[in-house]
Amino acid sequence: MDSSSTVEEACWEEAVDIFNEKLTNDKEKIIPRGSWKNATQPCDGLEELIRANREAYRKTFDTRRPRFKRLGEALQTVHKFAPVFDVMVQQQSFIAVLVWGPMRFVIQLLAAESRAGPEIWQGLERIASSVPRLLHGLKLYAKFPGVVKATAAIFAKAICFLVNARAFLDKPPIRRAFNAVPNSKLDRCLNELEKEEEILAQEIRAANGQAQAELQRDHNALVTSVSLEFAKQGAFRAGWFTLREARHSLIHENVNVVAKALPQMCLDASAVDDAQRRARGCDSISAWLQENSTKAEIAAEREPGTCEWVHRSAEYNRWVQTQNQGVLWIQGKAGQSKDHFGISFGELNAAGCGKSVLATYLAACASTDVVLTHFFYCSRRRTLAATAYFAVSLLSQLLSKYEIQRSDRFPFFIEKASPLVSHFNSGLECPADMLLAVLDDALTLVSSFTLIVDALDECTDPEDCDRILGYLGDLGSRSNTQVILLTRAGKFRQNVFTNAILISMEGSVVESDIRLFVEGKIERNGVSNPGLLKVKPHIASKISSCSQGMFLLARLVMDDIKTAGTVSEIRVRLDKAPTALDDYYQRNMEETARKLHERDKITRHSIFLLLIGGPLTPEDISTTLALNTKTHCVDEDELFSNPTREVLRLCEPLVTIVKGQVQFVHTSAKDFLLKFVVAQEDSDAFLARKCLSKLSQSQYRLRSYPARLLRMNLLAGVALEVGLEPTTKESIPYRYACLHWQDHVTALRNPSDELLAMLSRFLLGNEFVTWSETLFQIKSRSTIGSQIQVQSDVREWFGRLPDETKEKIPINSFFVRAHESLSNEFMREGEDIILPYLPLIRLGQYFNVGGKTNADFQKAYQYKMTVAEGFEAALGTRSPLTLRAKTEFFKEFFFQKRFDEAERGFEEVARIQQEVVSEDVPDIFITLQLLGLAQICVTKFQQAISTLTEAADGFRRLSGDKYFLTLQTELFRGQALERGRSLREAYDVYDNTLKLWIPIGGPAHPFSLMLKTAFGSVCRKLGCFAEAEEALLGSLTARKRLFTTENVTYVDSVLQLAALYYENERGKDGLEYLGLVQDSAGLKDEFERECQEKHIRALINLEAGFYTKPKTVLQRLLDEASGQGRNKNNRELLWVRITLADVLRQRGKYDEALMVFSDLVSPRLAELPVQAGSEDAVGYKFPSSLVDEPEPPAQLTIAERALRLLRDAKQDDAELLLQENGLKWKRQKDFWVLQGGPITDTASMSGLKAFGFKIIDHPSAPDDGTTHSSHEQEDHQDSDHSHLDVCYKGWVARIDHKM
């Protein structure tokens, strides 16, 4: 045993001695010395005590936790009003006092016991979490007796608490209730534990001081020793050399001592830092998971004797014998579940049976230490049936487990999950597939676990169901898992799992459990109603038969007959007992209706309409019903005096209240209402009116409200935001309306005129801007995309409406009119010089991101120009806001292809920002990123690499490697490297960026697709065709789902793939993909992309042996960009020239080939003279007289050579060649690079693949996407493509150069 273990053992011995001698007088509680000797570690005895207490706690409280929790809440409520009853009883008779006194005493006892459980559990968790920290402290301060003694005192107090807690938990319920009232011993233990921890902290501080003092003494001694040595040197000069060697030896020895101790000191400090980082990371992820989420769980108390049949079943034992391989799938009827369907508090806590009760029972009996549960219940909240809630719920449970936090791989899990925390507002907003991947990583941290999923059949989204079923099937096939699924029978196909064991809850099994349940309930209610006991066999038999295997129906019938006053009434109610849930709900609806006034019936109907949308608090129901949809005001006279009581009075037994939320007692109750009472259309119409009315309340229409929100959202990071009032948290109904108004509106097939008028006013008023800005705050990391998605949903709904209805909706004014109107209002009032421009900023963003036409993008340009000019006039050129607005404005130059102006603009903005803007905000790096992108467009690739590297480093310093802007900048840097032919480095940049981003954004995110396309492009150039095809096909498939064929990014994906297939000698496949976009507007509207499509198609046809038509197509492209169409010249046509020249030379047309390179260069207007006889002369070989000359062959030859150098990314060599010959490029714009998805780079593939290919002019070329003239068609009448395969095999022949 090492020294640290010895210290631990001594500390533990002292703790046990303290406990035995000072903290207990009970001999049964004394711990024998040496009882821990067989343990691996001395303090394993403490962990054993903790584990035993946890097990005792679970046996005492966990299986009864729901009942005790609800009972405790009720008793606390009664106890709170007990003084009132005390006063009432004081004036009553002696008999009343005698009755109330014992009742109050019992309430006091039971309430105290309900409080004791959580306090004990908190104490257990506190001690368990402290043990690793204390043991680590012992290792660090083993040589300091004060620390060891203080730690032993803490262990002693912990033992005292654990021993007394176990004694308390092991007592019978009655003794436990009496002991819970004066529960001072446990409280005293915890208080003393806290004091001892303070003493330990003082001892550690003292130990640190002592260690520092020792180091100082050693240092002083060393200094003194050195001083003595120097004194001796003066006295004994003869021994100077010897003394010097001794001094050096001493110094060297001290250095070695320090050097040996330093790594351990660093390791110890690193271990502490690592533990702190681990705790912070765990807390951050836990908070992120809990935000906006509701733990989807239900706890059900079972009737004694029920559910035990499952362990006796042959199927269950077969599953156990196969070591739990596959999913254990338990199926039952609808209604074989328990979902808070009692009417009173006592009934809610009554024991039950059914699928959910069975799920709880199986969780309690699980053989693994880690047990995870999830229960789907759409009747409570629609979103509870989502995959995200499933993953978030399980992750939250996992992170609370001690085993997972103790794992060596836990820091890696934290590191992997942290980027999601920074990228998404909450766990529920994270893509489902990514959440499941994180859950998978978390599950690998536990050695084994049991997962129990109940009521998956209530998940209404087929995609969610399929995803979760697939995930469960995968988990069930693993060796360390036990997966149990409970659903209704017939909901899913039986072969959904490849390896599942099915247990059916039917026949005698169900009837036996129902009979046990009914008999148990009769026994419990027999005291208050003896008539139940008299006809007990008849009741059990009747309910077992009429319930038809549905536990819910059995419970409801039992709840009905237990209130019968006579045996005859019991028999009558049994005879009338319904045999279906719908019959029961209908009968109760009718009985309740007979007791209600007509106004109450209308109110009840309105409550049902609200609850169809999801659970609400009683107060929210009251406020929403009182909201007048004509005046948009809450009528105070219409508010419920007691919302909870009124909702239950009107709507029981179909609804209940759980955790403050009004919800349907069971999914079948909601289904019944939708089937017989209300229509989904009516619910959506009602909720749509209420949502629009809430959004249109007077305070949201005042200009001051959206003004405040615009300032808060748009002026972040600048000095102007100082002094703004903080954002007020909106009410829950308003938040709901913000998030869901469009859901209810777009669900309507026949909206009323009243609703259409409300919608029209909302879309055009200030309240719309308030909604939009509130949405930015609710989704704090979202962009304008949320509003654009709403617009898209509304437009899609608008398209389905009749023409006469469409006329009443100002759909073309969506977003625009409200913001323009508010801007004009701000301008008229003149309250703030910048306020009028804030709505215009939003309009610029709206058209930039959501624009679909050139007119839309032009609007974005105009709005952003107005904002930039306005800010400059109001705030000056050097204001951070002005600079930010100019950056946004210059972004629009990309769309207009004014890349050189954009470059100059960004350079100027960046220069000023470096002087006036702090590097602690991202403004300067955003500008640098855009500057680098502009430099790529104007082919300044090396400058772009430098600029983008600086921007990426800045983003990385501010927010880390996985920040979106960091990764986006890395994508642009990769593009600059690729264009500069640093292909291997570009490959590494794309690959690394993909590895960092995919776990955050998922494989189908638009940015992921951009990265994959860029990666495929560089793989093609490197000859890694398999990797390229995988990346490009994946990107194209995803873009096909996200966009139409008109989208330019989709077009770019097709062109990238066609280029790959040409280079990989799979031209036929390339032509098939080009056919997908042949008629695309994204191709026709952009001449350069049309040139790319025709160029790639021509290359494929040329390789197949065709000549005339491909050559004609290429020549026409050049003709279209000459003369009056000269402005249509573009980068792609440069490479078309090279291909066409190669083709012409193959046919011996050398003069025609040379003429292809005309109109590319021109003589320089001013030249430096050549110094005769000077080797360092600066000048040009061609004299300036060439300015007025037509292009001679020599000039065309130089133009071709320079262009081929550019094709090979040798820009400097090309420029030098032109300079040496007194020439320059006519139009730099011809070389500019367009932005896209990214746009295909065909430079490297232009021209023929080798001069050794001979083109045989076959009678017919395959589909080239062009229409030929009549004389061309006469030369090539044959349009049959059946010989295409032969073409690719035999029409390209290699000719030996020696021939």
Automatic annotation (TrEMBL):
Family annotation (InterPro entries): DUF7708 (IPR056125), NPHP3-like_N (IPR056884), TPR-like_helical_dom_sf (IPR011990)
Signal sequence segment: none
Coiled coil, from the record: 183-210
Keyword Repeat listed: yes
Domain DUF7708: 72-205
Domain Nephrocystin 3-like N-terminal: from-to ranges: 305-338, 351-485
Keywords assigned: Coiled coil, Repeat
Region Disordered, annotated ranges: 1259-1281
Protein name, entry field: NACHT domain-containing protein
